[in-house]
What we know:
Number of strands: 0
Mean pLDDT: 80
Distance between the termini: 25 Å
Order of helices and strands: HHHHHHHHHHHHHHHHH
Helix content: 55-70%
Number of domains: 1
Structural class: mainly alpha
Number of helices: 17
Largest sheet: none
Amino acid sequence: MAELKSPASDQRTSLVKKDLVMVSTFLMFMMVIFGPFVALGLSGSTEANTGDGSSIRQLGYVIITGVVFIALKPWENYRRLLAIPLPLVVGLGYCWLSILWAIEPSIAFRRLVLATMVMWTLFAAMRQLKFEEILLLLRWSLVILLVVNFLIVYLAPAYGIHDGNALDEYSLAGDWRGVMQHKNFAGATCALTLIAFAFDRGRMPRWVQGLVMIGSLFFLYKSNSKTSFGLGLGALAAGWMFVRYNRRYRLAVIICISIIAISATVLEGLYQNPFLGKFSDPKAFTGRMSIWIALYQYVVDHPWFGSGYGSFWNIGPRSPIFQYATGEVSRMPNGHNGFLDLAVQLGLPGMALLIAVGVIWPLKTLLDSPIVSGTRGALIAAMFIFCIGHNATESSLFDRDMTIWVFFMVAIAMSQPNLINYKRAKFDVHDLFRFTRSSLPQVETAGSGSRRRRRSSSGA
Length: 460
């Protein structure tokens, strides 16, 4: 009997320019990774102090978004424009609403345009791509970054290695950063490279996998990024256990490992004063406590609305940080905690909403997803743990084109069959449900239904 096809089986890709989507997605990854370097190296932007932004970086995203728009041909199917998952639309909508009370509405508007553009472009493109295609583009991007980082360190060490000058922290002298702005950014991308190559090897030669992982681990070590090192190891452990533990225990295992990894990273940060170090000590945890205390005080004074999206850091003299801190803390580009940064910008209600749609919802859908199992599930789970845990000491949640936030959105899409071109993806169906035959979905085709009826009639 002829195989029945779903009415929408090829609707996504039949009229879409797939090659343009692939190229645009790869360029998006490249722009996210190298965009800050291009902006600072070519435009001389002072965004770190005034929020002016970089015209080169903005133009790059506009071009990529335009190419994806053309590739999708929405005039033939307008539904292709409805790309962002509804929970994230709700969170993004609240961010747009906060412009009404933003301290700097013009800066908030610019930053929200970029955040919306990046989010839409990513999800619109990934809905047209297979799981394997997204992972391949992601891996190529990370390998290129790793190679460039090594080249910059050895060919231009004055930039590739922190030198601790007047514009740099003396404690960072000797730490590797490669082409990235800071050693913490370099460490985070190295940890993500480890995760991306540790699981779901597929047909990749083992020597390629080993070489990339060793290179990433070495650069991560030289970057001296303790947060990424600790969380990276924790995420790898969680991925390993994800494969081996029964599905009903996975949530508990993931939560326990996440808590252990984050706690160990925070406690290790107090090593500078191991006997007297306390969470109330402003100098504890490489100075982050001073920043967090200032943010906490602002939240106490403005618990309901905050400063508005993108209107706390890097907005010039009107920044609220100058009223709550001085010196080095007032010059920080972010609060080094993604959850506190949401609270100071959107208030406690806004923070709760964005955590619900940007953390809790993705975790729930991860555990309920029918395509998350085996090494593929381990890869996605490890990415989830690292990206969420990273926000305990750095900031990226709902933050425009921050690398960790972008990769987290990629992981969200890869975990859901309705957010990628799942119908065309190749996978082993027997890996989807490892536990009992009763847990298999009861899918009936025209042939199977008629065969069951024949068997029942013959048995009668």
